[in-house]
């Protein structure tokens, strides 16, 4: 859903968009092979297990996709020299703060989904020696033109 929006927003640029059917980010060898064959300058990593309730019942899968998936994409980006932007979520916070969160607040996820996304953020921190050319961006919601959305904007 978000990945499709990113690909469409990059109209006019050379873009390779891979959906889940084309690339399972939980398969390290597939990730390394796909990114290695393209040798991109930049990667916007949108893949995630976002079904919060399913993450609670399938925590191993949630961590494989949301944490290790970022690690695998980061490794492939490092090997190819690509800059990586990975997308995260406000679920890395517990929601108890009365004012809006910012990136300097201490994460405290209250769900498996938030914990697994925080694991991915940890691997994507530029302070880590393996991820100097990387950023993580978080949002509390997405309003895509395609797929499901609480708000439809014409």
What is the gyration radius calculated from CA atoms? 15 Å
- Class by helix and strand content? alpha/beta
Largest sheet properties: 3 strands, parallel
Strand content: 5-15%
CATH H level: which superfamily? NAD(P)-binding Rossmann-like Domain
Shape: globular
Helicity level, as a percent range? 25-40%
Output the keywords.
154 residues, alpha/beta, Rossmann fold, 3-stranded parallel β-sheet, 3 strands, 11% strand, globular, disordered C terminus
Please explain how this structure is put together.
This protein has 154 residues and is α/β, with parallel strands linked by helices. The chain has a 3-stranded parallel β-sheet with strand order 1-2-3, covered by helices on one side. The protein has one domain (2-9, 22-139): Rossmann fold. The protein is built from 5 helices and 3 strands; from the N terminus they run H-H-E-H-H-E-H-E. It is globular and about 45 Å long.
Q: Helices and strands in order, then pairings?
A:
Blueprint: H1 2-9, H2 28-38, E1 42-45, H3 52-57, H4 59-80, E2 83-89, H5 112-124, E3 134-139
Parallel strand pairs: 1-2, 2-3
Write a brief structural summary.
The chain has 154 residues and is an alpha/beta fold. It has 5 helices and 3 strands.
């Amino acid at each position: 859903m978000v990945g499709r929006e990113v690909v469409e927003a990059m109209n006019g640029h050379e873009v390779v968009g891979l959906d889940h059917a084309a690339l399972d980010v939980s398969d390290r060898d597939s990730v390394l092979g796909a990114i290695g064959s393209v040798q991109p300058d930049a990667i916007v990593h949108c893949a995630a297990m976002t079904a919060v309730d399913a993450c609670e019942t399938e925590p191993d899968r949630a961590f494989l996709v949301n944490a290790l998936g970022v690690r695998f994409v980061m490794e492939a980006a490092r090997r190819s020299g690509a800059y990586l932007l990975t997308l995260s979520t406000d679920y890395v916070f517990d929601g108890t703060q009365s004012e809006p969160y910012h990136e300097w607040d201490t994460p405290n996820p209250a769900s498996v989904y938030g914990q697994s996304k925080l694991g991915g953020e940890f691997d994507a921190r530029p302070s880590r020696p393996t991820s100097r050319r990387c950023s993580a961006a978080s949002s509390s919601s997405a309003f895509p033109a395609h797929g499901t959305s609480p708000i439809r904007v014409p």
